[in-house]
Structures
1.
Amino acid sequence: MEQKLNNPKTLNAWAFYDWANSVHSLTITSAIFPIYFPSAAITLGSVTPGMISILGFELSNTVVFSYTISVAFLALTILMPFLSGIADYTGAKKSFMRFFCYLGSFSCIALFFFSKGHYYIGTLGFLFSIIGWGGSMVFYNSFLPEIATPDRFDRLSAKGFTLGYIGSVLLLIQNLTMLLKPEWYGGIGGEMAARVSFLTVGLWWLLFAQIPLHYLPDSIAKEKDQKQWWLGGFKELQKVFKEVMVNKEIKLFLVSFFLFNMGAQTVMYLGALFGSQELHLPEDALIITILLIQLVAIPGAYFCARLSGWVGNIKALGLIVFVWIFVCAYAYTVTSQFNFYLLATAIGFVMGGIQSNSRATYAKLCPKGEKDTASYFSFYDVCDRMSTVIGTFMFGLIIQLTGNMRISILVLTFVFGASLLFLRPLLSSARAKVIWG
């Protein structure tokens, strides 16, 4: 059983899905697409081209961009628990992962046709690319306790994130050369270079995903009669929900994860906005910042995996969250470009650590031998998505009420601090002593 769980080909293939899909997070979510969208999502020939009509409402294109992210995360929050129950019941976990992977990658490919004025293509392509990415990640993460023993979780999770950071940076650099050095590509225009970059993301994702989709094991259906698969999926979810509600350790961890992930994802999604609006940094400085965060996250993920081995997962998470508090406090004081780069370095280091460690810790908290891993990880995903929505909304609301972005950042220090209150009881739990020392 031990050898079957820790099959090297399966472990390496699993980690490679981070390499495949992380290009979406960097090129589509963070770097090129957010810059391209406001210039292309316009109403041609209008006096106010930045205002576009969506379902009868006149909205600015920047608002549409923000709302698209919120709608995508909301859809994931509603759909994923139910679909994960069906996947566990029918044994179709890998099929669901494949479906969402293809939905996301083909949506990115469709963005190649997002030229000026075709805002429906851009909006819908972006929407379904996020749903495809987020949906596939739930089923991908849920394979972790099925293919490895707990002593491998930390390093395997870190390996996945590391491959994701490296792959996404390599493709982003390639795509940036098209934008910054068009003469290398026969004088390609800026709009076409951006659209080609979206195409490369979809093809990269689709191509490299074939490796994990080939090697990851097929799940076994719980019932031979699948006529009421939807009812079986609902019962499966209901069963896992009851188990989660009576498991004090999982509840405490999920509440803590909700809070510190709220802070981390808010910084990740809106950090560039702070640089551009508060410090008035040029676009090239913001792109350098994004690349810096990705590169520094690699040693951060591995260091925190080792830290978990030294002091245990919960203590390691507590230390990482404590560093996040100081990072946010320092961000409140940043006024220069150099200090912003220092801030980005610190953010990248703890971002890699907190993402990798959180996934590994939750996998360890799942009951030993548990087969309903997709259902368990759907609750982890719900906390991930909802905390992102609430965190970014709260950040914007505080700016609207106070007119000061720095106050929003300062509030995040209290969010991280609150997460420590829910981590602390886990240090004294019996399971923590047995598993994490």
2.
Amino acid sequence: MVNACNSPQQKAENNTENNFERFRNVVFIIGDDHSTKVLGAYGNKIVKTPNLDEMAKNGVLFSHAYVNSPVCSPSRQSMITGKYPHASGVSLLSTPFPEEQISIADYLTPLGYKTAIIGKNHFNSSSNHGFENKIQKKDYLDFIKTNPPRKPADEIKSRPKWKPFKDPANIWLNADALPSTYYDEEDVGTFYAKKAIEFIQSNQNDRFCLWLGFEEPHSPFNFPIEYANKYNPENMPLPSGSQEDDRWIPEVFKDLTDEEKKGIISSYYTSVEYLDKNVGLVLNALEKAGLKESTLVIYVGDHGYLLNDHKRFEKHMMWEEAVKAPLIIQGGKALGEGKIQSELTEFVDLFPTIIEALGEKPLNNIHGKSLVPLLTEKTDKHRDYVFSEFLPDNKAMIRTNKWKYIFSTGKNDLGMGYATGFGPAGITHHLYNVEEDPKETTNLSNNPDYQEIMQELQVKLLGIFEKTHPLAGNVPASWSIEQKFVAYCEPPEESKSEETSK
């Protein structure tokens, strides 16, 4: 826990070295599985996202923002701690967020901020992790029990219960583009937005930190009855992929027809539009409360999403569409309007950004780097490369402006239900020139002309692990770089569990 030496207001007034007025509050909004490709502000001409687009017009859009893991729990806890997944204690989907880790709320609540986490949190435990208020799915279900929703008309066909991997993929990915059983007023996203508004209104005279996690557009791509039939599947874009993708297509997706794939994509677009509406409710509440200028608002996707990119759906890979995600930051006149920032950024950077923007003392032993100098145009440089890892499949990535290198132990077929049927691939290396080959169609790792570049990237990747990994210092120096990567790409919590059981 962090102890306050001075009041938050005093710190905000005294800490002015970057010559901009410190923010009183922060609202952090997360879209679940939100691809940059399905957002108007990022160039999509089909989807309707007026509120997020307006947020980008009023703030700064980051065009090259990367998650530190393309899976929900590790990504979210890296954001909330400013640490890479292997150091946050959460590198797997079901791992409980460790109590000893310092979350953004553990830091801010003792300083006098009112704090709340609303919606999806992936804590995988009953802990609040420093947040004074926690509202989640069970609270929504209680709301539905005590406030019975309107019954839909008999002719309205709704989505069946979500049963991934038990039902065929066309059903759990909602290829029929069916709505939920609820009208907008009673649906889960609207419930979370209303609870966020209540928190803002109740604390508008205090300093606060609101962490808001919507469930959309995660499969089954939820949207209420009023949103049905908004997007014609026939008009949906359908990426074709490349021959190299064939080795990595999960069996669960191999029987999907092009018609079903377009239906899935139309469901996703609809869910994004519903998400955008609810983000708009929260932004409007801030403005009505007179807090727009004094509140730092951050919108992110917890990672990207593959919409038949590379011939598959879901995330869990290191392709751009999975590891690059939306990042939009709004802060009134202090940050300017309509800026596009193309510097490489990581989502661990958001924790220190919030702390500096609020005028608080930086926290040591985190891996993020504050974006405030970029946001205030004190610098035009940030990172030379970004890092991500997906330890359920024992892989890690480093990306520069021009190159991307991916290592995987390949000791298992793809996990979490996405097995390819080809079996374990063994140790694999992927090297892409993302400048000349942005769709990542040609793996250059076996090309003799690129061995020096790959080795340089391996050294950089190893450096990240050796500076941040809990195993650092215990891996024998005599090991080859591949042997070291194999050790570092094991989920740390599994190793810890094995040690405890001995």
